[in-house]
Automatic annotation (TrEMBL):
The keyword Kinase applies. This is Tagatose-6-phosphate kinase AgaZ. SUPFAM superfamilies: Aldolase. Coiled coil: none annotated. The lineage of its organism: Bacteria, Pseudomonadati, Pseudomonadota, Gammaproteobacteria, Enterobacterales. The keyword Transferase applies. Its EC number is 2.7.1.144. One of its GO terms (biological process) is carbohydrate metabolic process. InterPro entries: Aldolase_TIM, GatZ/KbaZ-like. It comes from Escherichia coli ISC7. GO terms for molecular function: tagatose-6-phosphate kinase activity.
Length: 46
């Protein structure tokens, strides 16, 4: 929830942001999503 609250705060301050979704059970897709999130300092939830 902390991430969503921070996202709303940043949005109100004028920062462009959003949430992207990855819907897959394929291990390579999940690994890529986790690597991308890590490289871009984003949260990963299930």
């Amino acid at each position: 929830m902390k991430h969503l609250t921070e996202m709303v705060r940043q949005h109100k301050a004028g920062k462009t942001n959003g949430i992207y979704a990855v819907c897959s059970a394929h291990p390579l897709v999940l690994e890529a999503a986790i690597r991308y999130a890590s490289a871009n300092q984003n949260a990963v939830t299930d």
